[in-house]
Amino acid sequence: MRAPLRPRLALLALMAAAFAGACFDRAGAAAAYHRPGQRPAVFIRDSDDEGSASPQQVHTSLVGQDKMRISWITQGSAPPTVEYGKSPGVYPSSSTGSTTSYKYALYNSGEIHEAVIGPLGPNTVYYYRCSSDSAREFSFKTPPAQLPIKFAIVGDLGQTGWTNSTLQHIVQSNYDVLLLPGDLSYADFYQPWWDSFGRLVEPLASQRPWMVTQGNHEIEKMPVIHPDSFTSYNARWRMPFEESGSDSNLYYSFDVAGIHIIMLGSYTDFDPSSAQYKWLQADLGKVDRTRTPWIVVLIHAPWYNSNTAHQGEKESIKMKASMEGLLYQARVDVVFAGHVHAYERFNRVYNGKANDCGPVHITIGDGGNREGLAKRYMNPMPSISVFREASFGHGQLEVVNATHALWTWHRNDNDEAVDADSTWLTSLSSNPACKS
């Protein structure tokens, strides 16, 4: 990676009082353990030695099979041009994109640039610079065109010392693509936190594609003052929704190395008459399991959850009632969610019961947010829940071939990425009993 993850300047106010410990359940057995207390928030300021045209908050995302979107911000005017090539300092190709900005109350964003580059070769390292700035060269590696592929998956990331530690562990995982099921910066209306978050994740997001969907902390709607939702998120984290036939940046899909990945919006309309429902129905209808034998879905608010946190919310209950049948009929393999600040893995499930042809539901909302962990679970442990633990951490999904994938959850314990839960998954497309 280009640079180690660490705060470059100031730490802001300490978080609330430290907590004593957390509880976990493994296959129905409960135990207690103690971990270090909450860590301070991390605010990363703009570097004093960078000019107004210097690119910052650089991140990459996939666009189609062989293209990448490069996004970055400058404080002053600069061309939205990316120059790139396969050798350091040598840029035979270039692409010029577009520049936007936004206002939020008294805040004015910097110049937000993006450019789509390609066609690119698979599993290849490219070097690039943004806005013709020779002082900052970046590099990224494209994902493989075929299996195997490794995903890093983490939700509710935030900006704390635990976030920093989690990101360090993700760096070491040698992942190909990062998937984030909502709640990125926890800016919560204070827009400079968005800038800080962009600087915090740049060392990772500039080197591997980050594919995200929104959570409740991205809504940022205030009556009278700012009546529009998702302004900052949509401006800063543009995803390839048009390419999948979606009319909204809040839900989209993409293919990578034999996996069809669907990013859904928990905080936009999802009833059967909604645009999102109709789009999802059409998108699933186009899936060719001979080309993409795996289907993975990301949402923010979990449909299955035995933590006491976030029980009874319409984004979970009503969205599940509306869309679960579509996912079951399409034989979706795994559904990842955030929102609950803990980890939980369920059996294959449908309509509240174990079902060998239903998806595995996994809550991975434990990236490092400032609100702390959700430490209370419902008892007794539901029979469909396999493993649950209130710890910060991240997950890795290594899809080995068309039939098998290894899921591993890494607890972030004392800054060591402890392999705390793992299981082999078999694709439903390879299960004769689940042929639809």
Question: What layout of secondary structure does this protein have?
Answer:
Layout: E1 21-26, E2 29-34, E3 56-63, E4 67-74, E5 81-85, E6 93-96, E7 98-100, E8 103-104, E9 107-108, E10 111-117, E11 125-130, E12 138-141, E13 149-153, H1 161-172, E14 177-181, H2 192-205, E15 210-213, H3 231-236, E16 252-256, E17 259-263, H4 275-285, E18 294-298, H5 314-329, E19 334-337, E20 343-350, E21 353-354, E22 360-364, E23 385-389, E24 393-399, E25 404-413, E26 416-426
Parallel strand pairs: 13-14, 14-15, 17-18, 18-19, 19-22
Antiparallel strand pairs: 1-2, 1-23, 3-4, 4-10, 5-6, 5-11, 7-10, 8-9, 11-12, 13-24, 16-17, 20-21, 20-22, 20-23, 24-25, 25-26
Helix pairs in contact: 4-5
Oligomer: single chain
Low-confidence stretches: 1-33
**Number of alpha- plus pi-helical segments:** 5
Quick one: overall form? globular
Could you report the average pLDDT, rounded to the nearest whole number? 91
Strand content: 25-35%
Q: What separation lies between the terminal Cα atoms?
A: 44 Å
> Class by helix and strand content?
alpha+beta
How many strands? Answer: 26
Helix amount: 10-25%
Calculate Rg over CA atoms: 21 Å
Largest sheet composition: 10 strands, mixed
What's the short version?
The protein is an alpha+beta fold and 436 residues long. Helix content is 14%, strand content 33%. Strands 1, 2, 16, 17, 18, 19, 20, 21, 22 and 23 form a ten-stranded mixed β-sheet that branches. Strands 15-14-13-24-25-26 form a six-stranded mixed β-sheet. Strands 3-4-10-7 form a four-stranded antiparallel β-sheet.
Report on the architecture of this protein.
It is a single chain. The N terminus is likely disordered. The chain is built from 5 helices and 26 strands. Strands 1, 2, 16, 17, 18, 19, 20, 21, 22 and 23 form a 10-stranded mixed β-sheet that branches. A 6-stranded mixed β-sheet has the order 15-14-13-24-25-26. Strands 3-4-10-7 form a 4-stranded antiparallel β-sheet. Helix 4 packs parallel to helix 5. It is globular and about 55 Å long. The longest helix is centred in the C-terminal third of the chain and has 16 residues. With 436 residues, the protein is of the alpha+beta class. Strand 13, helix 1 and strand 14 form a beta-alpha-beta unit.
